[in-house]
């Protein structure tokens, strides 16, 4: 038996609860992992609260991230005792995920755990930090350098935003952080932000083209925020879009793209090639300031993940929620 959060939908009744399951209830897969830590992301909160159509089949164990030890494997790449890591690939949506003490998975979704990180640190980074690194890598592939100018990070106190600030600052960039929590200015500056702006400057409908302010943007918010970020980006600048906290819509015009040559880069953190996943995590292990990472972490239990999901949806969580599935 193992503990797990289980989401069920019976007729119109949607529920998420902590329960015990049997090993033979695990879904199909060629690698069984004893989970050490998971994390609570925005997508997990949507799944647990039922406030978004995230879960695609029922019953479902949520959790898009996990770190743990291989218990059994029919995949020659992984042996019992190997440390492994998973982000995305539909776990927690269409395949049982990491908010449980065990998971059975497809070996193609796993990567070896970075040697320089322990499991708790890896889940403090989680999909949020992995996505932030994918954004930075995309900016770099398109030629971005610190000398080009400041970088805007939206949703700055969230997981992606917090880790993006730390990574950018560590790489030598000047960072502007946009947040609705102006009382968190000290926290954001401790991560490396040099300028703090109120998200209200970006979240309402704006002009098709506005003053050039940033050489690049990492946006996890979408909607009007993304549109205004593009409108304020410098000529030949880059905007990496990776989230939709404000909304999935994009109420913009083509003006920034055809009058300034701004490039909008879509970041898919769910299904990246193995080599890019490994590169992202090796860079995270090498470049992320682990002392700064400790400022972002709040440890919770599986049981506490249930009420924490509502807190996350209400915007009352800062940084990263790490779930110790055995506490």
Task: Note the main attributes of this structure.
31% helix, alpha/beta, 2 domains, 10 helices, 28% strand, Rossmann fold, six-stranded parallel beta sheet, seven-stranded mixed beta sheet
Q: How would you describe this structure to a colleague?
A:
This protein has 327 residues and is an alpha/beta fold. The protein has 2 domains: 2-113 and 289-324, Medium-chain alcohol dehydrogenases, catalytic domain (Quinone Oxidoreductase, Chain A, domain 1, Alpha-Beta Complex); 127-266, Rossmann fold (3-Layer(aba) Sandwich). It is built from 10 helices and 15 strands. The chain has helices at residues 42-49, 119-141, 159-170, 185-191, 200-203, 223-231, 255-259, 274-287, 290-296, 302-313; strands spanning 2-10, 13-21, 31-40, 65-73, 83-87, 102-105, 110-112, 151-153, 175-179, 195-198, 214-219, 233-241, 263-266, 297-301, 320-324. The strands form 3 sheets. Strands 3, 4, 5, 6, 7, 14 and 15 form a 7-stranded mixed beta sheet that branches. The chain has a 6-stranded parallel beta sheet with strand order 10-9-8-11-12-13, sandwiched between helices. Strands 1-2 form a two-stranded antiparallel ribbon. α7 links the parallel β12 (233-241) and β13. 49% of the residues are buried.
């Amino acid at each position: 038996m193992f503990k797990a959060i289980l989401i069920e939908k019976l007729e119109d009744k949607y529920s998420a609860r902590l329960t015990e399951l049997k090993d033979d209830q695990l879904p199909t897969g060629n690698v069984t992992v004893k989970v050490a830590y998971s994390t609570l992301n925005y997508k997990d909160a949507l799944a647990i609260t039922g406030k978004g159509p995230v879960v695609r089949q029922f019953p479902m164990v949520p959790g898009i991230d996990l770190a743990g030890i291989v218990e059994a494997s029919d995949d020659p790449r992984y042996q019992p005792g190997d440390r492994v890591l998973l982000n995305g690939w539909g776990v927690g949506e269409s395949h049982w995920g990491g908010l449980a003490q065990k998971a059975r998975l497809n070996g193609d979704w796993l990567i070896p755990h970075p040697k320089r990180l322990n499991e708790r640190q890896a889940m403090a980074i989680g999909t949020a930090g992995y996505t932030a690194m994918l954004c930075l890598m995309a900016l770099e592939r398109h030629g971005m350098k610190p000398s080009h100018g400041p970088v805007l990070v939206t949703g700055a106190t969230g997981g992606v935003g917090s880790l993006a600030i730390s990574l950018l600052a560590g790489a030598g960039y000047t960072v502007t952080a946009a947040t609705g929590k102006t009382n968190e200015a000290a926290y954001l500056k401790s991560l490396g932000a040099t300028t703090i702006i109120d998200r209200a400057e970006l979240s309402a409908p704006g002009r098709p083209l506005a003053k050039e302010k940033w050489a690049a943007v990492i946006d996890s918010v979408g909607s009007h925020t993304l549109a205004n970020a593009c409108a304020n980006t410098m000529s030949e600048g880059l905007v990496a879009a990776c989230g939709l906290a404000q909304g999935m819509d994009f109420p913009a015009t083509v003006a920034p793209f055809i009058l300034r040559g701004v490039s909008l880069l879509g970041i898919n953190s769910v299904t990246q090639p193995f080599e890019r996943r490994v590169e992202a995590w090796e860079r995270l292990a090498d470049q992320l300031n682990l002392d700064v990472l400790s400022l972002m972490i709040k440890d919770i239990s599986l049981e506490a993940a249930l009420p924490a999901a509502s807190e996350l949806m209400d915007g009352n969580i800062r940084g990263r929620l790490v779930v110790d599935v055995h506490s």
